[in-house]
Amino acid sequence: MPDDALLSLQLDHLKELQVRYESALADHGFDSLLVASGAAPYRYGDDQAWHFQGYGPFLHWTGLTGREHCWLWVRTGQKPVLWLHEPVDFWHANQPLPEEPWQAFIEVRSSQSPEAPLLDDPGTLAVIGDPALLGTAAGKQNPEGLLKALDETRVRKTAYEIECLAQANRMALAGHRAARDAFVNGESEFGISLAYQQATRQREADAPYHSIIGQNGHAGTLHYQYYDTQPPGHPRSLLIDAGVRFRGYCSDITRTTAGPGESHFAAVIHGLERLQLRLCDMVAPGVDYIDIHRKAHQGIAALLSATGLVTGLDDQSIVEQGITRAFFPHGIGHFLGVQVHDVAGKPAPAPEDAPFLRLTRQLEPGMVVTIEPGLYFIPSLLESLLAGESGQYLNRELLSRLRGCGGIRIEDNVVVTGTGSRNLTRAP
Ligand code: GLY
Ligand code: MN
Ligand code: MN
């Protein structure tokens, strides 16, 4: 049971959402808005559906994940109404709804039908949700301008959201400790996944994303998606990127551990972690997130030099020649919220030197971002680097010793505060 302080923060959150939504609706000429929670589609040619989590705006209001065919009606000047889909069904169960104070703010009605409810006096109505499920629901469906404005309501998190994200971090950290222990005890990727799920009390399908658990060379695939059921003969490294959802809110944490005897790899991890902490410290209001990304490249250049992976080239040239891009090909992070890659991060396209950056904004209080530098030994990227002009500066012998460790990523979740930042992943 969540504590009273959190439940009371949730009421403030809902009041704030009502204000933000009323303003967005007024700006776009609407009186009310119907939000569809959505439903999982069936797999093509099959009678099995994909696992369902939920639509962002619905989660933003309710935090209720895994609830298909529910509808939320937000109205100017009136209480929101939530229709919970609770069909009589002997194949599936309906999730019980615990009684909580937010139900004083949102009227809850039970519904047998998956269809949009009939609304009493909706005024000028917008309906948002998965277009495949909106059917002929009355109202303007998914109006682009309004959708953008609603995404913007998710950018500056309320105190309630930040506490949920903090709790999602605490829960995931317990999982990361268990995963690390499982690795040290010689478990396979599959065994490590079980240890993570056991410690977080969360089945993987309900996590914000499928855990990325790679040992040895697998750690060099950014979103490695399989699990070996047997441990490697010689465990050299573990990269685990895994989160938890708490009341709809996601954590997104990555840790890398060196195997026994891997002192050189451990030194690179240590260097990247020191850089990662410096980058986390850069998070503050007014800072351009792209600058944190660029600082990461400079730091990785310095680390490549310090560890002897690159020799005979100054740090700036290491970046300019694209060497850091080969070792760190992704962006420094993204917004985090009810979606792991939360919305509205990219009003402007990513700059040419950071094509995969998902967040290109100046930081403001209330934003929550990830900071996730990496340093990987990715065969396809290293091969072209070694074959090109810059190949002469790479320490081939050291590279061939380390590449079997796959790579490193270290990822924390950081809130922008009024004066600086709060790192939710390293909270005491
Ligand atoms: N876990 C996916 C990411 O870090 O963005
Ligand atoms: Mn991650
Ligand atoms: Mn991330």
TrEMBL record:
Pfam families from the UniProt entry: PepQ_N, Peptidase_M24
Function: Splits dipeptides with a prolyl residue in the C-terminal position.
Listed PANTHER family: XAA-PRO AMINOPEPTIDASE 3, XAA-PRO DIPEPTIDASE
Keywords of this entry: Dipeptidase, Hydrolase, Manganese, Metal-binding, Metalloprotease, Protease
Binding sites annotated in the UniProt record for Mn(2+) 2: D241, D252, E411
Cofactor details (free text): Binds 2 manganese ions per subunit.
Alphabetical list of InterPro entries matching this protein: Creatin/AminoP/Spt16_N (IPR029149), Creatinase/aminopeptidase-like (IPR036005), PepQ_N (IPR048819), Pept_M24 (IPR000994), Peptidase_M24B_aminopep-P_CS (IPR001131), X-Pro_dipept-like (IPR052433), X_Pro_dipept (IPR022846)
GO molecular function, one term: metalloexopeptidase activity
Cofactor(s) required, per the database record: Mn(2+)
Reactions catalysed, as given in the entry: Xaa-L-Pro dipeptide + H2O = an L-alpha-amino acid + L-proline
GO terms for cellular component: cytosol
Listed EC numbers: 3.4.13.9
First-tier enzyme category under EC: hydrolase
Biological process annotations from GO: proteolysis
Residues annotated as domain Peptidase M24: 163-417
Xaa-Pro dipeptidase N-terminal domain boundaries: 12-150
Organism of origin: Marinobacter guineae
Name used for this protein in its record: Xaa-Pro dipeptidase
PROSITE patterns hit by this protein: PROLINE_PEPTIDASE
Binding site for Mn(2+) 1: D252, H334, E372, E411
HAMAP family cross-referenced by the UniProt entry: X_Pro_dipeptid
Family of this protein: Belongs to the peptidase M24B family. Bacterial-type prolidase subfamily.
Gene3D superfamilies in alphabetical order: Creatinase/methionine aminopeptidase superfamily, Creatinase/prolidase N-terminal domain
Residue intervals passing through the bilayer: none
